[in-house]
Amino acid sequence: MDRRFLTVLGVSLLFALVISSVFYQMSARSSSGPARAEAIEMKDLVVAAKALNVGTTIKPGDVTVSKVPAAAFPKSGFMKVEEVLDRPVVSNILAEEAIIEGRLAPRGSGAGLAPAIPVGMRAVTVRVNDVVGVAGFVLPGMRVDVTVTGRPPSGGPNRAHG
Length: 162
Fold this sequence. Notes:
Helix content is about 25%, strand content about 10%. It is of the alpha+beta class. The longest helix has 28 residues, at about 5-30. The protein is elongated.
């Protein structure tokens, strides 16, 4: 073989060895990134174990605790399960969704839909017959305004004169 060819081959192999060692050192430094990720502060976050509908009172089996980075922790999230137990849900919560203060009624505010009624508002029952019930005009979850018409009882201040 030609001596010139062997010299070029040797220099090429030496150059390839130097370049590969430089890239190996660079990749070894960047692989220390996950070690830094472990240094990120993690916090406990209470999340729903299953979907929770409006009016549900939270029980121990309804929630679980998950670890999240402190930077991703919701502003009004909960760290302990005890903080959410026996509190009614006022807005639907999906499975594995964080439980936040705005989705829960205060402890002791009652069960069912009562906590979902805003302050200053009132709910009353309305009898619905079969025809109105299947008409589909008002569906669950809709907001409606109700106007009551009728005659005031006699002797009241708004008594009609005839």
